[in-house]
Amino acid sequence: MSAPNKSYDPVEVEALKPEEIDRARDEALAAIAAAGDLEALREVKVAHAGDRSPLALANREIGALPPQAKADAGKRVGQARGAVNKALKARQEELERERDERVLVEEAVDVTLPYDRVPSGARHPMTTLSERIEDIFVAMGYEVAEGPEAEAEWFNFDALNLDPDHPARSMQDTFFVRGQEDQGAAGSGSGDDSGVVLRTHTSPVQIRSLLARELPVYVICPGRVYRTDELDATHTPVFTQVELLAIDEGLTMADLKGTLDHMVGALFGEGLGTRLRPSYFPFTEPSAEMDMVCFVCRGKSVGDPANPCRTCGSEGWIELGGCGMVNPRVLTACGVDPERYSGFAFGFGIERMLMFRHNVEDMRDMVEGDARFTRPFGMEI
Ligand code: PHE
């Protein structure tokens, strides 16, 4: 039926037949209406309004038509494409609105829900108290010094004027580290001849500091120490000491006393005095036990049975630790001239201080790592 196509009738061109154009438009509109989400609509757009869509291809055929036919076909195709684009835009807006509404519901954050169900605990009060003590001395120009916890006997005892046969050597219940040759041969060998112990106090850091540093020396040495005690309410085999050492020209016991007073004032409140009671340590001469005025009753509970003080046991004083002027023999062992230099040292246990400072009744609470113990200290600043 195709006549010679002299005038190039659009009805003869398959893609430009009115019913073909209507069909392409209707298919496009149906697909647009059926697109359930933006992704599907994107595909519909490519298929029905893209460069290779039926209407775009039909549009391309128009150029070859004679002028009159061109206008007709152009109008038809243009209207079809216009309708498709309009429908696309409307559906696009509709789907975007739906998506936005859904996101608002699905991704809503309930700010009233608990944000964290895992208890996070807090810094351990031993850490905060140690750092507080360090800060007091760092502010005065002291440096923090550290040493090994498995320590040579020479540092832990000999250099501190505790010879092997010194009676005070057995005062400290020592963990001895077994030597190589004893390993695996349990029962044979004494096991105490490796020359290494778990340090029983932080005083060996005095020696290490004197050997390693230029004079004058002002150091504070916090650290873990070990003694063969059973863990109970008042003992632990691993505990923490702070040692202080000052070596300079012309230091006297008055400097020791003033330093102690300052520390106690900074930790427990201004104006709390300290006292020294004669004592004995091989590494200090003279030596003393140091006490501070009870920061709770300030001595008022003494002789007043009606108002007992739990913190000091109505003694009026709280025992802090040991101190003294560094023994000249220790200075000599470290190559320091005792004729020119003198100094003082003191040491105390931080667990004990934490106990009386915060009314901790059982030492085990401090080592068991239960967050219920640490949390109330977490607000400390
Ligand atoms: N090292 C001693 C102890 O653990 C304490 C101390 C330190 C005493 C410094 C005097 C000087 O018992």
Automatic annotation (TrEMBL):
<dbReference type="InterPro" id="IPR045864">
    <property type="entry name" value="aa-tRNA-synth_II/BPL/LPL"/>
</dbReference>
<feature type="binding site">
    <location>
        <position position="285"/>
    </location>
    <ligand>
        <name>Mg(2+)</name>
    </ligand>
</feature>
<keyword id="KW-0648">Protein biosynthesis</keyword>
<dbReference type="GO" id="GO:0004826">
    <property type="term" value="F:phenylalanine-tRNA ligase activity"/>
</dbReference>
<keyword id="KW-0030">Aminoacyl-tRNA synthetase</keyword>
<dbReference type="InterPro" id="IPR004188">
    <property type="entry name" value="Phe-tRNA_ligase_II_N"/>
</dbReference>
<dbReference type="InterPro" id="IPR002319">
    <property type="entry name" value="Phenylalanyl-tRNA_Synthase"/>
</dbReference>
<keyword id="KW-0547">Nucleotide-binding</keyword>
<comment type="subunit">
    <text>Tetramer of two alpha and two beta subunits.</text>
</comment>
<comment type="similarity">
    <text>Belongs to the class-II aminoacyl-tRNA synthetase family. Phe-tRNA synthetase alpha subunit type 1 subfamily.</text>
</comment>
<dbReference type="Pfam" id="PF01409">
    <property type="entry name" value="tRNA-synt_2d"/>
</dbReference>
<dbReference type="InterPro" id="IPR010978">
    <property type="entry name" value="tRNA-bd_arm"/>
</dbReference>
<keyword id="KW-0460">Magnesium</keyword>
<dbReference type="Pfam" id="PF02912">
    <property type="entry name" value="Phe_tRNA-synt_N"/>
</dbReference>
<keyword id="KW-0436">Ligase</keyword>
<dbReference type="InterPro" id="IPR006195">
    <property type="entry name" value="aa-tRNA-synth_II"/>
</dbReference>
<protein>
    <recommendedName>
        <fullName>Phenylalanine--tRNA ligase alpha subunit</fullName>
        <ecNumber>6.1.1.20</ecNumber>
    </recommendedName>
</protein>
<dbReference type="InterPro" id="IPR004529">
    <property type="entry name" value="Phe-tRNA-synth_IIc_asu"/>
</dbReference>
<keyword id="KW-0963">Cytoplasm</keyword>
<dbReference type="InterPro" id="IPR022911">
    <property type="entry name" value="Phe_tRNA_ligase_alpha1_bac"/>
</dbReference>
<keyword id="KW-0067">ATP-binding</keyword>
<keyword id="KW-0479">Metal-binding</keyword>
<feature type="domain" description="Aminoacyl-transfer RNA synthetases class-II family profile">
    <location>
        <begin position="127"/>
        <end position="376"/>
    </location>
</feature>
